[in-house]
Amino acid sequence: MPKPPTADRRPPSADRLPPFLAACYRQPTPYTPVWFMRQAGRYMPEYRALRERYGLLELMREPDLAAQVTLLPLRLGVDALILFADILLPLEALGLTLHFLPGKGPVLEPRLTPDRVETLPLVDVHEALGFVFETVRRVRLEAPQTPLIGFAGAPFTVASYAIEGGSSRHYIETKGWMYHHPQAWDALMKRLVRVTLDYLKAQIDAGAQAVQIFDSWAGALSPGDYARYVKPHVQALLRGLQATGVPRIYFSTGTAGLLPLFQDLDAEVIGVDWRVPLGAAWEAVGRHHAIQGNLDPVALLAPREVLARQVDAVLAEARGQAGHIFNLGHGVLPETDPDQVAFVVEYVHERSSPLSADG
Ligand code: CP3
User: Fold this and answer.
1) DSSP secondary structure string, 143-210?
2) Could you say which residues of the chain have pLDDT below 50?
3) Residue 41 is part of which domain span?
4) Which of 86, 100, 251 best tests ligand 1's pocket when mutated (most atoms within 8 Å of CB)?
5) Residues at CB less than 6 angstroms from ligand 1
6) pLDDT tens per residue, range 258-308
7) Any domain includes 252
8) Is 3 within a domain?
9) What is the pLDDT of residue 104?
10) Distance in Å, CA 106 to ligand 1 centroid
11) What's the number of domains the chain is made of?
12) Is residue 228 flagged as an active site residue?
């Protein structure tokens, strides 16, 4: 008999998993589990109060505070927590300086250049990022019943920040590396995969029960460039995590045209944005993956009945099939009313439960 694809593996004790983890393995659940990207952030008054006293990096580097922020969304009824950290933290471990400037977003200095790849230090993640693993341990102690998602950036998305020195619109420098310095690009991708593997494995050792790889900006790439310059490294990262036994979520945005290329990725779950109907996305990536998404974050700013209709539309696309994790297509916007977020959690649970009158 042919071996099933690795995305099809089941954990040994799948029978009593919490709904979020069961859905990652496409097991039936009593209701559709839900969590939100950026669920701990500026839309929450408790978070803003903490930010008045502490800088963003300060909040992330102090395990007591980072754990406190990670736990804030519990009051919304979410089915999973996501570690409070940032995809750019490992770049500091590679010797770059990271700042978050108000209104400008992240700034990385000095910008990475092709000639410097070989001189990047070999980091010990425990030394450089030990505070992250300590945060994981504290969250697990405080909320042992709620699955905790660890995360990291994917090599392309993280590299783009290091190479452009911050956020980018056209990725001119990043793509320039690929086209003009393919060997240095390959070396950089391999270095990032290695550090990211160490980083995620340490999060898992500390207690993270699933991991999400954020390839937020992969949608900037043509299918050909994605296949040639990026996908092999994403696959190496995912395969490197296989032995950990935790589900892997691969998330990107603007990638409707890349979804068929995700079919053979070794990820249990593929996260998609709202620019593609969830059902079509699931077909495109293959039903052997679970799917995560894909409400437009702006729908959370709409009147209740419009919001409810849009949630219904996402659930209808999933057709009640096992393996749907409800989420936004990208992060919660700072303008969002937390009551709207709590409403969506409750509404998704109710509408997806078999006891629901007409759901
Ligand atoms: O989702 C969560 O609640 C967990 C925490 C989390 C943060 N960043 C905290 C954060 C996660 C999962 C991330 C991932 C991240 N960081 C991504 C991938 C997800 C995505 O949005 O596409 C990216 C691209 C980054 C890089 C980053 N961090 C940018 C571009 C910015 C500035 C823009 C912005 O939204 O402010 C950040 C800052 C950041 N990271 C904030 C938070 C809560 C902003 C909060 C603040 O200023 O207090």
Assistant:
1) -TTS-EEEEEE-HHHHHHHHHHSB--SS-HHHHHHHHH-HHHHHHHHHHHHHHHHHHHHHHHHHT--E
2) 1-9, 12, 357, 359
3) 14-352
4) 86
5) 37-42, 51, 56, 82, 84, 86-88, 100, 105-106, 151, 167, 214, 216, 331
6) 999 999 999 999 999 999 999 999 999 999 999 999 999 999 999 999 999
7) yes
8) no
9) 87
10) 9
11) 1
12) no
pLDDT tens per residue, range 27-70: 999 999 999 999 999 999 999 999 999 999 999 999 999 999 99
10 catalytic, yes or no?
no
Cβ partners under 8 Å of residue 172, min gap 6? none
CA of 41 to the centre of ligand 1 (A): 8
Does residue 9 form part of some domain? no
Query: Looking at residue 12, what is its pLDDT?
Result: 47
Residue 358 has a pLDDT of: 52
| pLDDT score, position 16 | 84
Alpha-carbon gap, residue 349 to 347, rounded angstroms: 5
Catalytic (active site) residue 61? no
- Residue nearest to ligand 1 atom 25, measured at CA: 87
Strand, coil or helix: 86: coil
